[in-house]
Write a structure and sequence with these properties.
The chain has helices at 2-25, 37-45, 71-78, 141-149, 227-230, 295-306, 350-364, and strands spanning 52-60, 80-89, 92-98, 103-109, 112-117, 122-126, 157-165, 168-175, 184-191, 198-205, 213-221, 239-242, 262-263, 266-269, 278-283, 286-292, 312-314, 317-322, 325-333, 339-346. It is α+β, with helices and mostly antiparallel strands. It starts with a helix and ends with a helix. This is Transcriptional regulator.
Length: 365
């Protein structure tokens, strides 16, 4: 036990030193590369076959209302997360979350993921569902950068100054969402000019100078990791469970939500893995999800949001903003004289939520 405690104390000290290094090395001037913004985006999107290993740190600036279902997500988006990654390909990687008390590793293979809690000797198997809550591996700059740029248009992209990241002269790209409803003011991405691999991602909202999310590599090696490093088989005596698929969430006895084709200026779209009861709107990083909310959940969620500092409570419902992420519980009166409740969530402004809620009310009447 003493040796184990000493081991994690050394790990914590090492991480503290690594976190301090970027302030030193990123102060050094970085050389820029002559590459157009659209070409750089294309390189980033094509970088999912670039092998690497490295350390990364993600720092979240959001404050979400915490519930049993969202505790893990709230921690990821409001705290600092230290990550050790080994990446051989899109279906062969490993990401460990390192803390002072232990590690939790996620291993990806062709069939899905294994999540291994070293301290509790517990393994959880997931089948890589199309719809899932954010997890630590999603915060790696490489994964996050590709996801955020996946629908960025040419007109939304500009080049910015280079930066020194993990010893690389990384070229800069800014994605400024064009949608009027957008709560994200800009996404800044610095990438390796040769491979297109995103090395740092900063997500900003207009209402604060503190980034909503800042994730960066501190150390990076572009050599291909050994297959034995990413592979995982649970020990015979491990406690093995199965991850819950969000597509199986009980939304009550609801038909497909009777929602308009456009909300707050955002067009409705079809997204693989999203249940029929949920309306998905927008594109790129400006997205809005709307779902009829079962009565048993509506009251407690409404109370929780109303108790959040800065909550707006009016005839439309209750809504809050946590950086660029907004949530709302809205009530409506239906055509048959009944009432309904909707949950609205997305990277849109509070005004956009209010507009969407009003449009839903008008549709239900």
């Amino acid at each position: 036990m003493v040796r184990r405690g000493w081991r994690w104390a050394v790990v914590a000290l090492g991480l503290a030193v690594l976190v301090a290094l970027p302030a030193v090395f990123e102060a050094l001037p970085a050389d820029d590369a002559s590459v157009a913004a659209t070409d750089l985006r294309d390189r980033v999107l094509a970088s999912d076959d670039v092998a690497f290993s490295g350390y990364a740190v993600s720092t979240g600036g959001l404050t979400l209302p915490v519930s049993d279902a969202l505790t893990g997500v709230a921690d990821l988006l409001s705290d600092q997360t230290s990550l050790r990654a080994w990446y051989r390909g899109a279906e062969d990687w490993r990401v460990d979350v390192v803390t002072t008390t232990g590690e939790t590793g996620t291993h990806r293979d062709a069939a899905g993921t294994w999540t291994w809690d070293y301290a509790d000797q517990r393994a959880s198997r997931g089948d890589a569902p199309p719809l899932a809550l954010p997890a630590a591996p999603d915060l790696l700059p490489s994964a996050l950068g590709r996801r955020l740029l996946s629908e960025a248009t040419d007109a939304e992209l500009t080049r910015i100054d280079p930066a020194r990241v993990a010893g690389v002269d990384a070229v800069g790209l800014r994605y400024t969402p064009a949608a009027e409803a957008a709560s994200v003011s800009a996404v800044d991405i610095w990438a390796d000019p040769t491979t297109g691999l995103p090395l740092r991602v900063v997500v900003r909202s207009a209402d604060t100078s503190i980034p909503a999310l800042d994730t960066r590599f501190l150390d990076l090696d572009l050599a291909t990791p050994d297959a034995a490093t990413t592979a995982f088989d649970p020990p015979p005596d491990a406690d093995v469970t199965t991850d819950r698929d969000l597509t199986d969430v009980d939304l009550g006895r609801q038909e497909r939500a009777d929602l308009p084709a456009t909300l707050a200026g955002l067009d409705r779209r079809t997204v693989e893995g999203v249940p029929d009861q949920i309306g998905a709107y927008g594109s790129g990083i400006t997205v809005l999800a709307v779902s009829a909310l079962p009565g048993r959940a509506a009251g407690s969620l409404r109370s929780q949001l109303a108790a959040t500092p800065g909550a707006v409570v009016d005839d439309l419902g209750v809504r809050i903003a946590a950086g660029p992420l907004s949530l709302m519980v809205a009530g409506t009166s239906t055509r048959d004289g009944g009432s309904g409740t909707y949950l609205l969530a997305g990277t849109v402004t509070l005004d956009a939520l209010a507009t969407a809620a009003q449009q839903i009310q008008e549709t239900d009447r």
